Amino acid sequence: MKTHSRIFAFLVMATLTALGFPQDLKRLSYQAYLIQDKNSWKQNVALATQAHQIQPNERTSFDLALMEYGLLNVTMVDQDERLFDAYADGLEKRLKALSSSQTYGAEAKALLSSLHGYKIAYNPMKGMFLGPKSSGLLEEAFAQAPNSPIVLKMMAGNKYFTPETWGGDKDEALALFQKSNQAFEKSGKE
What we know:
single chain, 190 residues, mainly alpha, 81% helix
């Protein structure tokens, strides 16, 4: 499970750095990522919430979604389902709203797909219903932005964590991770 948590953490950091996140939140999220600290992530969510309240727009909403996603990711380390449940519904609503965005739509769909994956990790029985939904969202995101580093990274995670019986493929996951890394480098962002 620790290996899976580290991969989730890597996905989060790749996501946070992909979109030129505001420097203070970017630095704080990187620190929280390094130490895998829930309290640091909660503080980041609070800062992003405050920024969104001051200037409510798609950008600040997406920044907040990234912070919430980071917090939910770190709950996987110790299986803190209570904390996960406290934030998952709000994040899901935010990502659904952003999924129609011209700017953030593909990335929002990819993150929403990954959120469904987290829900499956907490309750494998949900896999029968959320698995196809997750895959469908990723397909939509990929059709919308096939070169997005975030979309590629989330697709890689999906292929890695999905059982082979339902389309998972570790080799394909590795290829997608590599393609995502190249896309991050090409975008000129950390």
